[in-house]
Amino acid sequence: MVIVWLLVLLGYPVAAQAYDEVRAGTPTLTVSDTGMVPHVPDTAYVTFGLETAGKSLTEAQRRNASIMGKVMERLRELQIDKERIQTSSFTVSPHYRPPSTRPTDSPPASPEIIGYVISNMVTVEIRALDKVGTVIEEVLKAGANNFQGLHWGLRDEQPVRLSALKLAADKARQKAAVLSEALHVKLVRVLSVNEGGHVVRPAVAMARMAMESSAGDMPISSGELKVEATVTLVYEIAPN
Q1: Which site in 45, 100, 180, 233 is 20 to 30 Å from 1, CA atoms measured?
Q2: How far, in Å, are 60, 62, 114 from residue 57 at the CA level?
Q3: Does residue 190 contact residue 164 with C-beta atoms inside 8 Å?
């Protein structure tokens, strides 16, 4: 989930200046509302990886590099540009011999390394959404054994964010108008405007059984993203 805070200038003074000009005790009305705009995603991000073990670090690295090379070759065959492939994590972990029972009065033995495990995680940006299922299936066939999942995104979120922001502002103004009428007060001016928003990204989780499946393309549905924006308005009010 992404959170973005923006300063919104709608032709009114900013909050600090406006409050400085208003004497203490000035009555105010605060309203807040949310606008939500659905949008079909145009990008998928698939994260997968490979864990290999070896008695020595060199052996574990050699196995990891060999299999990951096959995975990368398969991605190139699927016409995934190298600029869309990013190593998201790379870890090396020693594997220790399990501790054996010893007399309580004997000094503790130093841990003994008996091997290494290398984990190499990669995130792939896929812009041709009809390839998502194929990419997942093919990288698993090529040797990837750790699938983290996928999420959907928009390459350009700003136009959708602005639409959600406008919708939220319109709804907040309408709410203020209704409340002022019901309370028999008039809206004098806007003292402050605050905005916040985020993108709701539906996540897709893959069960381990899907990793072992070999029957056709995996059923992947992108669904919709919901882009939200919230606007809070503080009005100075006066008797009607």
Answers
A1: 233
A2: 5, 9, 10
A3: no
pLDDT, tens digit only, all 240 positions of the chain: 333 333 333 333 434 444 455 556 789 999 999 999 999 999 999 999 999 999 999 999 999 999 999 999 999 999 999 999 999 999 999 989 887 666 666 666 678 889 999 999 999 999 999 999 999 999 999 999 999 888 899 999 999 999 999 999 999 999 999 999 999 999 999 999 999 877 776 644 443 434 444 434 567 888 889 999 999 999 999 998
Q: ∠219-224-226 over CA atoms, to 5°?
A: 150
The full set of domains in the chain, from first to last, is: 2-40+156-239 (3.30.110.170), 43-100+109-153 (3.30.70.2970)
Confirm whether pTM is higher than 0.85. no
